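Q: Focus on the chain.
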Amino acid sequence: MDCANFVEVVGQCVRDGYNDILCNFEEVEFIDYMGVSGVVLAFKEVLNSKGRMKFTNVPVHLKNIFSVAGLDRSIDFYATEDAALASFKEDKVIENIKKLQLRRRFKRLPIDIKIELRSKYEKGPHCLKLDILNLSAIGAYIYGCDKFKLGDEVLLKLQLPPKNEALELEAKVVWLPDKQVQHIIHPGMGVEFSPISSSVQQKLLEFIDRNLSLLSQE
């Protein structure tokens, strides 16, 4: 494999705006240390350009070399060109789904739910009968308590209507309103749910989506 030419060709593709690159190694018979280094350099350039680089028809003895170099954990190999091309389309679908899920997690629902809030640690403060003024799948704004400070780890208990399903969430205080400037929502705090399981987050997402839909109908 002509290492210098390979790196230059891939680099030119990236500069020309082609970020999804498929390399067919069907006619490559030998690759040495410099060749492996060239593959790594080209691969990094594509990744740094937010692109994807995949390989097809790589002979078994070359795959073994890539494996020894540890590249088999980073590089995608495909038996045929059609399979590799199809994988680019699948990546796009998955990427769009992830973006949609990310946007959903940040949706905020204005709501009034009574909760209990206490320190994650036994001797810490606690507040009862607080209000969640808005809720997302990653956090909430809680009104009615000024006993916590930034960085405090807390546990909050709430019940999601209409079934009043009980949830206990771990969270961290990440924002406190300024009493002089934001007196309407003081005292209170913004919390980020951390850690949160995917199943609990899915429950919150379904609850938020359902209620946002009802609000839009009204």
